[in-house]
Amino acid sequence: MLDKVGQIGLSASTAWHTVQQYGARAQALAEVQRRAATAVPSRREPIAGAIRQGPRQGVALDGGMVPIRGEGWKELKLGCHFEVGVGWERDPRTCDWGPCGQARGMRYVAHLGGPEEFGQALYTLAFRQGWTRAADTLVLGDGAPWIWNQAKEHFFDSLQAVDWYHADQHLAAAGQLLHGEGTPEAQAWREARQGVLFAGQAAHIAQELMAAAEQEQARRPGSARAEELRTAAGYFRDHRRRMQYQELREELWPIGSGVVESGAKQYKGRFAGPGMRWSRPGFNALLPFRSAVMGGTATFDALWHAVKCPSS
After folding, report:
1. Cα 170 from chain centroid?
2. 106 vs 9, 117, 125, 257, 291, CA distance in Å?
3. How far apart are CA 154 and CA 148, in angstroms?
4. How far apart are CA 252 and CA 260, in angstroms?
5. Distance CA 83, CA 296 (A)
6. What is the pLDDT, as a whole number, of residue 48?
7. Beta-bridge mates of residue 67
């Protein structure tokens, strides 16, 4: 592209060495920022006399798959930090227009590796955006255990919510277990239970599914369907406190994690295109810059200046 547009020649080896050099600087900068964030003694304790009056903030967590050479498809853990504003949109249940919480000013971070390192990276991003000064905070995610383990470790005093659309997908799957895939009865059951779920009564849905599992077990001992129903019941039972959707919406919190799912698509678009296979060092060298691009011009410019002119 440089050659075609600006008649600037750039060999593949020069591009590779530049990426490795700048990528190493970006990773070193991230480590310095992580140490600064996690070294703050008060991050687990309220600061004496301090008043949290900053804008409300949230984080959303998810995962996606990327191709790593010699390893196959590996999970990329990714997170989004955002401020919470107020806008107008359709209620996902009633389709009525009304005020709602909306994510704004998104910034992203991603990590190819374990959840512990990722959790530290996401907390560092949130800390640098004033998380500890925010009036209230929220963690959004799906039902993956690693997400809520990291929420407990780094965002322990935040509200927690399972993304509404993931919960609704589980509701649809439960309806199919009860009444058969693609049947009108399954769709009717799902629609009838959506209001129950939205009202924060996930425990009632769990009880209904558990009762169905017990009936199935009594009719067919050892039935695989009975075990699937127990698993579905466990999902709603274990996450019931994270499924207070009506209350969250009334308090103008977002209840969908679309910001991080959109981010996952953008990471995938850059790193999982046709024929792409990445070495782990090469992937890690580019990852901070992709995250910065997704955070907007100011975020990218700040990172680029820091790695291009590290002494300034």
Report:
1. 17
2. 35, 21, 11, 12, 11
3. 10
4. 19
5. 15
6. 45
7. 73
What's the full length of the chain, in residues? 312
Supply angle C-alpha 65, 292, 7, rounded to 5: 100
> In angstroms, rounded to a whole number, what is the distance separating the alpha carbons of residues 178 and 108?
39
Q: Where are the alpha helices (DSSP H) in 155-251?
A: 164-179, 184-198, 202-219, 224-238, 245-250
Q: How far is CA 227 from the centre of its chain?
A: 28
Residues 67, 274: Cα–Cα separation, whole Å: 10
CA distances from 47 to 42, 132, 304 (A): 6, 9, 34
pTM for the full model?
A: 0.89
* Cβ atoms within 10 Å, residue 182: 8
pLDDT of residue 52: 64
Predicted pLDDT of residue 93: 66
Structural domain spans, the chain? 21-36+53-161+256-308, 166-242
Q: Which residues contact 163 (CB under 8 A, 6 or more apart)?
A: 60, 140, 141, 142, 255, 256, 257
297 CB contacts (<8 Å, ≥6 apart)? none
- What pLDDT is recorded for position 44? 43
Question: Token pair 């409300």 is at which residue?
Answer: 56
Distance between CA atoms of 103 and 137, rounded to whole angstroms?
Answer: 12
Q: φ and ψ at 143, to 5 degrees? A: -90, 10
**Low pLDDT (below 50) residues in the chain:** 44-49
CA dist 138 and 255 (Å) reads 10
Helix axes 115-128, 145-154, angle to 10 degrees: 50
The number of CA neighbours under 13 Å toward the Cβ of 75 is: 12
Maximum distance among all Cα pairs of the chain, rounded to whole angstroms: 76
